[in-house]
Design goal:
Strand content: under 5%
Order of helices and strands: HH
Largest sheet: none
Shape: elongated
Distance between the termini: 13 Å
Oligomer: single chain
Helix content: over 70%
Amino acid sequence: MYWKYAPYLFLALAAFALFDAYQRINEGRNPLISFLFAGFAIAYFFFKRNFYNKRFGNKK
C-alpha cells in the first residue's frame, strides 16, 4: 500500500540534494556529489514509478 508513495520520497531527497549543492556552490566547496545524488534520486523516481505501474497498474 505504501509502496506507491515511496518514489516521491526520492523526489524530496533530490530536492534536498539540489539545495545542498546550491549551498556548497555558495561556500566554494565542490558540489559534484550532491548533483550526482540528485541525479540518481530523480532517475530512481522515474524508474520506480514506471516499474510500479507495469507491475501493479493492471490490478484494481
